[in-house]
Amino acid sequence: MLYVKPITFAKTLTKYLTMAKIIEENIVIKVSKLVKTGSDESLVTNDTVSALEQVAQELLGDSVIVEVEKA
Q: Which residue of 1, 17, 44, 66 is most buried, as measured by CB atoms within 10 A?
């Protein structure tokens, strides 16, 4: 059985836990269209949102998590 001093283990664990952090950036894409009064059309479909997410993921790489929200 391997015995490691508790203080040594705690220092090692702290070292690895403090080395990583999350960097987050937000990008806003605003879409507008001039329409007649009373028009209730959607400019961005769910397929478009999905396509934008896929393009961003491909451009940024697999190590980045891409989340797209329709507001």
A: 66
CA gap 68, 50 in Å, rounded: 8
Q: Spell out the residues 6+ positions from residue 70 whose beta carbon is closer than 8 angstroms to its own.
A: 44, 46, 49
Q: Is the pLDDT of residue 21 over 90?
A: no
Q: Is 19 helix (H, G, I), strand (E, B) or coil?
A: coil
Alpha carbons 34 and 25: distance in angstroms, whole number:
30
Of the candidates 69, 54, 67, 58, the one whose C-alpha atom is nearest the C-alpha of residue 22 is 67
Summarised one tens digit per residue, pLDDT across range 24-55 is: 999 999 999 999 998 888 999 999 999 999 99
